[in-house]
């Protein structure tokens, strides 16, 4: 059996965007959602690539997201900027407010973006990478739906609660990390389930609170935080800062609102942008140069910096195209031909 030919990043973007527009997204919303999905595939982050299309279409079909929502910016001129997604996807809301966030951070030194009532499905590195490219340090976080048991507990209470950080660098790529506060992203367990392979030990517990390597039992039970009590505390911080602080859903509420983990969650998100030049102005030192000393020293020891693998994959994909399996290409064909009826 021959291996399917690679598809260019541009062609994949065109195909995915056409799928979303045919399912009711405005061109602007479809482009923003497609940007992050294709970026995941381009950077070899399969759990956040075209695998995510089906989940997005399911919430559209279930009426749990407004595909044609228009993000509404609320800017009082202070450090905190708000954008109401109006039950739409989070990505169009972020991009609708990004330029205002950047300008405010450079004006005041620090600014926060609150995204309200959004549906989240993607990684967070897109946000912090975009801000780092503007010369800003950035933090991004959001709750999810309750699928993770706190350390020492047995029932889901926390979300996978991702946390991302970006730092500007003089080279072509910033320093970026993005991770779930669970041992693994839920999408990784779902990919194991689809492949019929066991998950590693320590990822999850079953309904009875017992350790399991069965992805089905894990999805029916609870995932675990990374790093024991430390990951559990960081996950709790995300719940408080990106949920309680904003007056938006926390993970347990998001689960109840969605009626289960079969649909993507609705909640809020918090993004912080910091201007290095403002913070270091009176020090007489260059913060980016100081950062480079540390980062180059880490790399000089042979350690891999976060996202290096992703950036390397990006170069390869832009040059050689993206390799999709026959099943993935067939699914794209089906979504293009049938839209929501394919579900």
TrEMBL record:
Molecular function, one GO term: oxidoreductase activity
Keyword Oxidoreductase: yes
Cited Gene3D superfamilies: 1.10.1530.10, Hypothetical oxidoreductase yiak, domain 2
SUPFAM superfamilies (UniProt xref): L-sulfolactate dehydrogenase-like
UniProt entry tagged with the keyword Membrane: no
Keywords per UniProt: Oxidoreductase
Family note: Belongs to the LDH2/MDH2 oxidoreductase family.
Protein name: Oxidoreductase
Originating organism: Celeribacter ethanolicus
Highest classification ranks of the organism: Bacteria, Pseudomonadati, Pseudomonadota, Alphaproteobacteria, Rhodobacterales
